[in-house]
Amino acid sequence: MKAPQHSPSGSSLRRGSYLAGLIVVATILFAFAAVAFSYFVVFGSTKFQTLPEGVYIVRLSEYEISSEPEPIIVKAGEPVILQIVNEGTVEHELMFVADLGMMANMIKTNAMKLAEQNPDLSEEDIIAMIDEIHDEMIENMMKAFQGKVDGDLMIELEPGERKTVTYTFYQPGVYTIACFELEGTFPSPHAENGMFNQVIVVQG
Ligand SMILES: [Cu+2]
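^ thats the input. predicted complex w/ copper (II) ion below
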């Protein structure tokens, strides 16, 4: 009786499938590494970066203001850097406001009144008119922060735009930041739809 022999063709077939398996595993590993690397390249600058102390990323979107890290806690008298980015699809702002409810109500009331008085005007026209009133209100509001904050109290950003601003807060307390743009939520401002946050200033 002849001992069973491995046929040469069977052996090379096994070698072939072993090689194919290796290639599949290597391809999967390579693809995984490539995806991880490109994710890091795209989002690494903001998602995985360890931010230095006193630096915050502030994200504006429809319709919220979020920060990283959260919450924004700063020491009085020490400069803090806000890297503000508009990740939304409409213009947004970051504005320091002394009285959020009053400001939101004032904008909404004005928007409704203007729309009622000018039925022929488009929503964009009314928003442009509100922008002018808005600017006057900002000037008055700035006075409330005199001597308390050093830095730009009103930042406007187009979709995709980012700005880096340095602030120094001199008085401990809770400062409200909000967006009062109207696009998409007319006649109520974005703030009334949840687009606000706080900067907490503690004793240095
Ligand atoms: Cu907004």
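The first strand starts at residue 55 and ends at 61.
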